[in-house]
Amino acid sequence: MSEQGKAPGPAEELLRIRGLQVVFDGFRALDGVDLTVGKGELRFLIGPNGAGKTTLIDVITGLTRPAAGSVKFGGVELVGRKEHKIVRLGIGRTFQTSVVFEELTVVENLDLAASFRRPLRSLLRQRRGVDEVVAQALETIGLTELADRPAGVLSHGQRQWLEIGMLLAQRPKLLLLDEPVAGMSRDERERTGRLLTEIAKDHTVIVVEHDMEFLRRYASQVTVLHEGKVLVEGDVAQVSADPRVQEVYLGRSGKEAAA
Amino acid sequence: MSRIMNDKLRGYAMFAAVSALLLVVAPLALPGFRLDELAKYLCFAIAALGIGLAWGQGGMLTLGQGVFFGLGGYAMGMYLKLHDAGGDLPDFMVWSGVEELPALWAPFRNPVIALAAVVVLPVTVAALLGALVFRQRVRGAYFAILSQALAAAFVILLVGQQGLTGGTNGLTNFYDFFGFELEAESTQRGLYFVTAVVLGVLYLLARQLVKSRFGRLLIAVRDGEDRVRFLGYNPATVKTITFAISAGMAGLAGALFVPVAGIISPSLLGVVPSLELVVAVAIGGRYALAGAILGAIVMNYGKTAFSEEWAGGWLYLQGALFIGVMTLAPKGAIGVYQQIKDAVARRRSVPAPHQEKSPASLKEEVPA
């Protein structure tokens, strides 16, 4: 099912992580992670609970400081930079629990995401109309009709899409999605999958995901993390055939792995 | 669309009505000393507007606005004192045995510098404080306590430096205000108009700010500071700017208060007055700028009126009101008004069927 048409070959390198270590009170959340993501790739990051997937995203986006290692984005070192500066370099992320600004309307949420490159003086002016980027993002996530409603009225799924829309409006080079389909209905999952495929056409995307069915349908390249280390890397078939993966991860739900 | 137009028109009408009330009706109907009282309330309303901006919109619970009110007030007071003294030392310094004008006072001989300092001083202090504190991600209760401690420390400083600041008595006995005799009723009347106009202009500016992208960003910072970072903004900058603006408003309020009330002293800007102002904003409705202004005027009026009848009773009433508002109507008087308005509107209009359907029908559609 993973016919993304993406060559897994050595594309231009966008993200290069080397020897990443994160320690929380003596617990090694990441223990020497190496990861390289090429431009235009759609990479899935999987692994059992506590494998360090979210921690990895947190380090890339500046939320967590590593004890050692380096994260280079287009040749620029990210470790030690502040969160908003990393966003300004072109990295956007979503969170497991979607956080949209409930008091602001859908279009205001998107506009805010699109406006961070504006100088302060222009921020002091009122928004007139809807920017091209914002309109496009609205269209992509299918919330055009709800544009002027406060984001507080959206359903869980719609909030996740709004978050993805805000990410798109930022025009990032790299998108990091942390469990985008968690808690979604089957319908919503389907829509998110299609949305993801659409986005991956012209963006580099890293997705942290738990949902195996979703993974099998939409993933091309998969990295499996286990106990803070990269266990296996490859396409879906390779990864699910790997005995080590079956043991630590898929093995836990053996029937699913066999399917 | 028509609803938005209606709201806009209603807003303009409300602003015009309140302006007419303050600029025409009140000066005609109120006796001189009552008008003076109202002018004081309007000064507090200006400071309250700043609190509405910082707290209501930006989520910064600032319990030390008295500091900035004081900086503005003392800047104005120092100029008036020096002006009245005409080349000599101000009276209280003579009484305290000070023989030479302190260097700190010297620049305030110049009216332009003094008037600029009214805004520049509080803005600078707030900006420095904000840059330090917000960058370290100090927020919520910690920021509130810090701002309150600042007010307490400021008062101790003022009281301790008798020869420099007039101590507990503060600065008072002003006679001449830019060529006008301060005692004269016409001067007081004029000051009332100036205060009312300043309040109106600041309200419009603040409203513009709230409606701008910056204002949206401010609300976003209030509701999800950590998320805002991942939209590429530095929340510390947004908060510092807003805090500095609110401090500038408090400074202006303090400066206007000095000629209006004829005094500025530590008891006007310590912890208690700072808190009272925040309580007034909460009761008026902190999420609307108009609520902050309304709260400040009504609560200060209430304080005067009530104290005339039953001295000491106001404190209890104020406390009870605050608790009542916080538990029953956290959005304050303006919030209650809006709730009633919405309820009436809902009752009147049967919802249009297509509006109800749109969210549901959208689910069927495919994104992209």
UniProtKB/TrEMBL annotation, chain A:
<dbReference type="InterPro" id="IPR032823">
    <property type="entry name" value="BCA_ABC_TP_C"/>
</dbReference>
<dbReference type="GO" id="GO:0016887">
    <property type="term" value="F:ATP hydrolysis activity"/>
</dbReference>
<feature type="domain" description="ABC transporter">
    <location>
        <begin position="15"/>
        <end position="252"/>
    </location>
</feature>
<dbReference type="Pfam" id="PF12399">
    <property type="entry name" value="BCA_ABC_TP_C"/>
</dbReference>
<dbReference type="Pfam" id="PF00005">
    <property type="entry name" value="ABC_tran"/>
</dbReference>
<keyword id="KW-0813">Transport</keyword>
<dbReference type="InterPro" id="IPR027417">
    <property type="entry name" value="P-loop_NTPase"/>
</dbReference>
<dbReference type="InterPro" id="IPR017781">
    <property type="entry name" value="ABC_transptr_urea_ATP-bd_UrtD"/>
</dbReference>
<dbReference type="InterPro" id="IPR003439">
    <property type="entry name" value="ABC_transporter-like_ATP-bd"/>
</dbReference>
<keyword id="KW-0067">ATP-binding</keyword>
<dbReference type="GO" id="GO:0005886">
    <property type="term" value="C:plasma membrane"/>
</dbReference>
<keyword id="KW-0547">Nucleotide-binding</keyword>
<dbReference type="GO" id="GO:0005524">
    <property type="term" value="F:ATP binding"/>
</dbReference>
<dbReference type="InterPro" id="IPR003593">
    <property type="entry name" value="AAA+_ATPase"/>
</dbReference>
<dbReference type="InterPro" id="IPR051120">
    <property type="entry name" value="ABC_AA/LPS_Transport"/>
</dbReference>
<protein>
    <submittedName>
        <fullName>Urea ABC transporter, ATP-binding protein UrtD</fullName>
    </submittedName>
</protein>
